[in-house]
């Protein structure tokens, strides 16, 4: 098989590249996708008369955003307003914290983050985002220490940057380079826009522009030989247990950074240029997972979420889970500090976990995680009067 161009990966980048080719009236290309579905880390699955997003959750920004524009053209933007406003904030000892006071501290922390660029030293490549934020902490503590204990203020301050940790896939913002931070355009408008029918509606729309044979699924690329005038790609079709070769002039490789880190020495012949390898090695790639916590019935009364404010001066143990599952160290529970209600499900909470604790949680059985989360919610949020969750769902092979 011979094509002018081969695109590797049918995630958003690969589909967007193919769409651009078609818009330029260029059709001599094929997209090779290793899995059995398009979308990459965008995967929507039907659930409870609606859907859940296994991967990407939101559209970030509504202005000059081609993804949002596609969603708008498909009537796929969810503009409904959730009337529930309450968020339960609690320290790990079950002490409920004043919602207005917590959010006031978090707003000051967010303001500190928004103005951080003023303090970045372009000549200091070792400067981290975490260190810059810590420099501004004492001013915030002094503003609120007459109303709240210092350890609680510090816990709120740390929790305020949960989203930043998730977006950078790191457990500690001291790992994030100040000079490399936000080297991308932040679009205006709602940064957490929801999809009415699921994110896969966008990728399905893009894929609909291709002819039948322009996307080949179950095609695992084993080798890219670019040593000659033509590029030879060795492919293994896992479904049919068949190997083949493709010849092309150019390859556009859109596979994920994690896959490149693990496989670039095996895939490319000859190896990639040293500057490319150096970039791949230097870029961080953390572990980020989603856990769906599912209850039997809708929340009554309704609310927006739960957030644990971890204090360093208060011990915490989940005795029942520790004994039942023979867990030696329970520190990983600190990764389970934020539970948000899904906008299209009034009986599901979504938890993100990140960093080394996320990797540890990946290895635990679903029933173990269910017991841990159930006991954590019971101990930290007795005032929320929530029943025990029915089950948890996660999709490690996708995320």
Structure overview:
It is a single chain. The chain is of the alpha/beta class and 399 residues long. 31% of the residues lie in helices and 21% in strands. The chain contains 13 helices and 17 strands. It has helices at residues 12-23, 66-73, 99-114, 129-135, 137-144, 150-159, 162-168, 200-207, 257-267, 274-282, 319-324, 356-362, 366-380; strands at residues 2-8, 29-32, 44-47, 50-53, 77-78, 87-91, 194-195, 215-216, 219-225, 231-237, 242-253, 268-269, 288-294, 305-309, 338-341, 348-354, 391-393. The strands form four sheets. The chain has a seven-stranded mixed sheet with strand order 8-2-1-11-10-9-12.
Shape: globular
Helix content: 25-40%
Kindly state the mean pLDDT as a whole number? Answer: 94
Unreliably modeled segments: none
Walk across the major sheet and give the strand order.
8-2-1-11-10-9-12
- The strand count comes to 17
SSE string: EHEEEHEEHHHHHEHEEEEHEHEEHEEHHE
Largest sheet: 7 strands, mixed
Estimated structural class: alpha/beta
* Structural Rg: 23 Å
Number of helices: 13
Distance between the termini: 32 Å
Strand content: 15-25%
What's the SSE blueprint?
Elements: E1 2-8, H1 12-23, E2 29-32, E3 44-47, E4 50-53, H2 66-73, E5 77-78, E6 87-91, H3 99-114, H4 129-135, H5 137-144, H6 150-159, H7 162-168, E7 194-195, H8 200-207, E8 215-216, E9 219-225, E10 231-237, E11 242-253, H9 257-267, E12 268-269, H10 274-282, E13 288-294, E14 305-309, H11 319-324, E15 338-341, E16 348-354, H12 356-362, H13 366-380, E17 391-393
Parallel strand pairs: 1-2, 1-11, 2-8, 6-14, 9-12
Antiparallel strand pairs: 3-4, 5-7, 9-10, 10-11, 13-16, 13-17, 14-15, 15-16
Helix pairs in contact: 3-6, 5-6
